[in-house]
Specification:
heterodimer; A: mainly beta; 7-stranded mixed beta sheet; 4-stranded antiparallel beta sheet; 0% helix; B: 6-stranded mixed beta sheet; 5-stranded antiparallel beta sheet
Amino acid sequence: ETGVTQTPRHLVMGMTNKKSLKCEQHLGHNAMYWYKQSAKKPLELMFVYNFKEQTENNSVPSRFSPECPNSSHLFLHLHTLQPEDSALYLCASSRGGGLGEQFFGPGTRLTVL
Amino acid sequence: KNEVEQSPQNLTAQEGEFITINCSYSVGISALHWLQQHPGGGIVSLFMLSSGKKKHGRLIATINIQEKHSSLHITASHPRDSAVYICAVRDTGNQFYFGTGTSLTVIP
């Protein structure tokens, strides 16, 4: 148990659906991250929020829309996804900005049909 | 070509064996990390290195900055070590690059 929770753990959606992934951290951290992990590919950092402000958006398609209402919660809103978006989506949080200081959630396994 | 390359991609070992996982990178780095990902997805940070060697229990991580290479060693491997081990680097511009991971299975 890392103090970072993600819901749902599994999600199957059609290409026309709209869904949201939720991440919550109970560690008092001020930075939160979304990562994408596809089979046989390296982890990809998608978004970074620091004190609720988005500080990084690594060329992510607009069909992924993040929201950070406060330092403890992070959402990833999904709409009109493609089958190639099927992946494990990991949330992480940290007090500082270093990778080694990040605590990861268990991930949401997303399948787009 | 990925900035971080790991080998092997898959590794099966008998319990008790000494295991080595290798990581090579092509960028100038400020730090290198070894991460462990168990089935189910969650990731745990094992080591952060910028030089030399670190040891934690049965795990040892080394880095050679000149050769741009790092190794993760597991001594007296155990089935609970079965996981994916990911090498990641932070470059001097604060960008993170990740390897594709090494999937380790330790058989009792």
